[in-house]
Request: fold
Amino acid sequence: MKWLMSRMGLIPAVMDALRKSPATTAFPKSEVVLPESYRGEIEFFAERCTGCGLCVRDCPAEALFLEKKSRDHYRLVYYPARCAYCGQCEESCRNHAIGNKHRLVKAKTNIEDWIQILKEK
Amino acid sequence: MILEILFNLIVFPGLLFQTLCGFLFEWLDRKMLARYQRRIGPRIFQPVADLIKLFSKENILPKGSNHTIAAALPLISLASVTTAGIYIPVAGFSPQSFAGDLIVVMFLMSVPTLAYYLSGVVSVGIYSLLGGGRSLLQFFSYEVPLIIALSGPAILANSWTILEILQAQKELGSFVVFQPIGFGLTVIGLIGKLKRDPLDIPKAKSEVVAGALTEYTGPNLAFWRLVMNVQAVLGIFLLINLFFGQISNITLLRVIIFIAVALVITILLSTLSAIFARLRIDQLAEVGWRVLVPIGLLQLVFVVLLRF
Amino acid sequence: MNKISIPIGPQHPLIKEPISFIIDISGERVIGGEIRLGYVHRGIEKLAQSRNYIQNLHLIERVCGICSHIHTTAYCYAVEKLLKVEIPQRAQYIRALMCELERIHSHLLWLGILAKHIGLETVFMHTWHDREMVLDVMEEISGGRVTHAVNKIGGVRCDIIPKHHMLLDETLTKLKIQVESLREVMINEPSLKARTKGVAPITPEQIKAFCVVGPIARASGVDIDLRRDDPLPPYNQLSFSVVTHQDGDAWARTIVRVDEVIESINLCAKILNNLPAGEIEVRTKRSVPTGEVIVRAEAPRGELFYYLRSNGTEIPARLKIRTPTLPALSIVPTQLSSIHVADIPVILAGVDLCIACADR
Reply:
């Protein structure tokens, strides 16, 4: 029996595939479930940010930009189009001001959304 | 009289009926392949949508190709295949028939292969030339066993007319029982003629990008796809007529059995597509001339002995 | 017969990334070929000289999509050697686990591509469905399917919690059953054997002359594997066997890779069982002392070679990467003489092209 099954090549696999349901999903109609630790868009907690600039120094895609006029007057700008979603800013921030939303929907309808001012003081 | 012939050519077993059957065949084939590969597969009107989309595009060919011949070749193939179709009975209904029409049908169904090669030559491009040449090489390897296999039923029924072969099976029983090898060789020949996996050497996607039709776009390509579908459907009808015959006399039962056998043969073709890899052209020539032709001749000798 | 040149050019259904082969054929036999590279050259070594070490980590990850983790692993070991820090054992084991998972998914990808190019689309779809299991596990652990970003200088970023343990055990069991049945199919399928047996054999002398590494070398009987010969930290404590084969043709390369997948599944199970408890990172300084270092690692395609020189600042002075696809490409013109035209996809797929690695 085993010898016969091994000589039949792909036929058992193909008949098995007919029994199981398709492995692909019809995307816009059915939901896609993302895991909990999915690394997606960043979430910014403005009250914890002190304008130190560690995230700006370590961002590999130069997506964060700090305009610092004095110790209490600064502006943090974020360009989502350049972001590589690597999570390095979350690692570098010492005050835990950057988190992760665990989802990624990149299409935006408004062109002004492509330059986000995260904190202005 | 003229009106009846026009009706046969265009509507009933003519262009419209064959196109409709061609759409159903293409949908079932793609859906079965998708299910074997654990995908969902297209919806029922996908072949129609593809054809409409192709008709809305432009005809673009490289510099140096002859636009008139390139546009005429698919139309000539479509005309010859449709004409062959009116002599093949559908569920016992045979509007036109004359003595010796099996040979005419076999010849008319080989015209698209020659037209495929010519369309490869006329659209100037390196992949088209290679694909066209390969299609002729493949033609020599599967056509001889196919003709030997198709002559089996003709000898057993003592006539070269398809309608008479059909009626001879009412007394003698279905011919597939006496010549299973002939049935197998015809299926292989059909796979070669339709250029499906495992014999899709002329349009192997990884070596020659799309074979002789690489440079074709727009309505030209739409007509070629129509020719391929109609050829497939007519091949299946011919297979059913020559090897299974008319099983009963009640019209409704005849139609149902015809449709059922056609579905089974389509599923068989899809399964063979899914489980084999593509052959190399020298392996095909070896198998064709060293294995298939001898067993075809053996089957023919057996059939001749059965007649006496 | 006269000679015609067909371009398997920068865009072709056969290749995933742009590379140009110009192949001379006469009738149905191939007489020679020529390769042109450089279509995906992004200048990564030059870009690395103007970014600091932490930014470079994410740049290096994007050299290649299939073997992204091993590039960052080699880079991190190089920087840690210069900083003279020793990362915790748990971090070493987690790095090795992701390396082995990556080896599994890279070989399954290659198997699907080979099957697709010889016409067996069914095997292509089934193999890539099995590969999805591995990618889902990697996404659960690290957060990304392709760019995992697991490493950081001084350790790893994400830990393996008990929920991941259970998921990994389940996945490895299911995967082992699937791969073993796949192996049975590959060995016994007659049309696959007919297309790959005896095609373009490479002798061990040619391997040594062209410096070919990885599964291609092991399929010709040359017994080299950096995980045993020059191991990075956790591999010197793990035992596994190196798969070789004697024939050297396309069939041998297929069997070697399938057996390596099974070996990697066993190794993953061993790593999970022996995972030590403890920290997963140490803090390091940002500026690296002067020095130069060489690190070699075993990528899915062979030996990966990193040279790093620093001058005491936060920005490296020179980074040199030598990827294993480059010598494999240099032996392709030799393989291309006197074969059939229909064997070209088998050879090009057998090289396991990763042009982004070769061009950097």
Chain B touches chain A at residues 34-41, 271, 274-275 (CB under 8 Å). The mean pLDDT of chain B is 86. Residues 2-307 of chain B form one domain. The radius of gyration of chain B is 19 Å.
